[in-house]
Amino acid sequence: MRHQVALVQAADAAVLQTPAERDYYAGRGVAPERLVVAGPGVDPARVLGGVGARFRRAHHLDGSLVVSLSAMSYDKGTIHLVEAVRRLWREGRQVDLVLAGTVLAPFSHYLSTLPEDDARRIRVLGLIDDAQKRDMLAAADVFAMPSRTDSFGIVYLEAWLYRRPVIAARTWGVSDVVRMARMGC
Prior knowledge:
Blueprint: H1 2-10, E1 14-16, H2 19-26, E2 35-37, H3 44-47, H4 52-58, E3 64-69, H5 78-90, E4 95-100, H6 105-113, H7 116-121, E5 122-126, H8 130-139, E6 142-145, H9 154-161, E7 166-168, H10 174-182
Parallel strand pairs: 1-2, 3-4, 3-6, 4-5, 6-7
Helix pairs in contact: 4-8
């Protein structure tokens, strides 16, 4: 966003989350020595402790479970995720999909256009509290948030604390996050 670029350009220094973000601002004329990459982290004590069985019982889930936690929108990849799971269903795969986070109007409209059988299979929880989030991550077989707009995606780190595979989009700083995780950083 233009106002963010102007803010970073006017600042004495900027602390950024990923090398991609640093390169973006350097490409817009900000001196590299004013750009510091210090990505955020998570406190395992505040993230771990979820009980997956409790989440599965509460939502009547017994199959492979794909979960997502984000604002539900096209740019966050929620529609892409739903379409990917619908494809798995058409192939006969038994996969449960749970979506948590803010339900935005365009996503609600998209859901209303789905065949009733598919829409009924998608569990849209809306906003959940921290305890539910921990239980959901513990219950998941896969965490998916193929966002095209996130510069970092702290929820990827939270899912990895539960040792869950993560599906992300190859975009912006998220690629840096995935690459750093693969390297054990």
